[in-house]
From TrEMBL:
Source organism per UniProt: Pleurodeles waltl (Iberian ribbed newt)
Keyword line: Coiled coil
Name this protein carries in UniProt: L1 transposable element RRM domain-containing protein
Signal peptide: none
Residue ranges of coiled coil: 55-99
Amino acid sequence: MAGIRVLAHNAIGRRPVQPTATTGETGRCTRSSGGPGACPGGGEGLWGNEVGKRVASLEEHENTRSEEIEQLQQEILRLQDQQIELQAHAEDLENQSRRNNIRIRGAPTGAQEEDLLSFVQALFHQILREPTEREVCIYRVHRVRPSHAPPDDILACIHNFPLKEHKLQAAREQHPLKFRGHTLLLYQDFAAITLQKRTDFDRKPPVYETKKFPTFGGIPFS
């Protein structure tokens, strides 16, 4: 009985054995299962290598993404330039299709609505001071706005471009142009985007005024 008590006392007085780190066959430090023991230096180096590899991989991935974003931005700029060129080309084509048109503003809605062609013919005869028997070749004449928004502009397409330019020049020389008791204005017909650009340009002060460039006869020079 005395011997059993001594063994029990020795077993109770012993400290629990902590799991220790062991070295595997590959020479790497591994931990014993369930133990918190750390490898003496080798495990920390391995963990640091893994972190370094992951950081390097993330940096490489970020660089790749940055290059892709830069390429996309360059492509966007190229497409924007193409869009500007296409818009300018479309605007030029539309203005060319309108080059024979004259826009008549100020003509009231009334009896001439029944025969706009005769009204425009008489107007052009007065502008050019020609006999009324001479017919001006006109492709078409029509109002350019809905009838519920009077007075609407009249659009006349002239067959001959030089003759159209001659009519506009003669109308400018007779400004203000009076016809049948009304003051009329004749304009070149432009695309809507061109008219908007001119409106925006008129709202801005000229560069030579903001920069204080010297002028001669209203024309800036340096």
